[in-house]
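Here we describe the complex-level prediction in full. Unlike the single-chain runs in Section 2.1, the two entities below were treated as one system.
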Amino acid sequence: MFIRFRIPIALLAVVCWLPVRAVAVSGPQETVQLPSSFRPLIQRSGYIFAGTVLAVEHVPPLPNEMPIVRVVFHIDEAIRGVQQGQTLTIREWAGSWNSSQQYRRGERVLLFLYPPSKLGLTSLVTGNSGQLELNARGEILLNHNQALIRRDESRNSAGKRNRIPRAAFLEALRRAAQE
Amino acid sequence: MTCAFKWHQAFLPSLLLIMLVPAARAGGPRYVAGSTYFDSSVKGTPLTWAAGNVTYYTDQGDLSSILPGPAADAFVADAFTRWMSIATVALSATRAGQLAEDVSAANVTVTATGITSPTDILPSAISFPVAIVYDADGAVTNALLGQGAGDPNACFNNAVFGGIDNFSTDAHLLHAFVVLNGNCAQTPTQLPDLKYRLVRVLGRVLGLDASPTNPNVFTRHPAPTSADYAAWRSCIQSTLLTACQSASATPTPISPKWMTARPSRGFIRSQQLISKISPPSFRSPTTLPAFTAASSSSTQMPSLHSRCRE
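The structure predicted for the assembly as a whole is:
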């Protein structure tokens, strides 16, 4: 009888184990190491913060004007150029939305943005790699382009690579931003 | 016994389906007519240039000291050729002349009401369907993307940027705007990388979307395999670029054996796509089926394609 169900049970076990393994994170004492390749991202940024998108507004251009998008954030965690609790409004050239980034109202993100230009416009440093998503668990979610961020080597494992505890990551960012 | 076996048979394909869905992801048309704004008759139709004709205008200024105006024009024309020369595509790109000015930070300015620029590069300038701007000193890039975006150390991301910014209700592309950063064209060794990025952006201008790549060739995480390098390399080579690796990003020398590579399956995949949305007997573009492993002629293509573009 057991043999009869052996293969389905094994498959079921694998299916149940995969998501559990994928969301597993370590305790708050874990440290995050930012590789040297992350430094240019920090150095070029005028704004670094974790925030919530409050509003996205496509500003209708006048006849001789370029279209822009206005995005309003609530600053949840300030790293550079902003203060915690602040409401920040940025302006982006709408053309940059055609090629990569877009924000959604209510989205929680960690952003690396260029200092505003003489036109008051900004965008993500290094394209989409300058935007990290936060989930409801307070974890930083990395896409495949951001998988360069590593944990402490002694704790590193493939299953943990794409989710980083938020507090540890922000602390590592603050340290790097002050260097 | 029989009942358990049937359950197993049903379960295993479902599991495989769930596991393989991410691998089936691939690029497609960048824009497809939706249910709002567009005529109802074109719903689901990929957006293309009318009659397959792409007319572009170039900046009056120089791109850099090694690419003055005429040389920059030839550089752009060659990049267009990479797409137009595909045998199964009825697309043509014609340089119709110059823009009315040298676009620079001097004429892209901020006013009390917004950001003004020359009228022939605005989305509404459909009589200048594709505007190619030579940003000689990176100042236009800085102005549009943020301070520092046009610096030489940002070429990996901002050497070429732009894309479609206007389309019609009958599912046609009307206007595109492309900026080439002159700070990324200062030495001959930079030009292959610049060309590669221009070809990619022009793919977007033609209506193609990008698909994920194997960034571990750059990031080293996870450690890239020889297959990763080979696929990445063959993709690059498909645009006939011979020294395309970014000096700042590629840590490992490319083996000569990759230089003699097979044709790029990824680029072939893009060729197939552009052939579908702009076929030789150009009528109205047909609704494009979703690209999955099942619709590809080779089950390997989606994953290989995902390694090659973007």
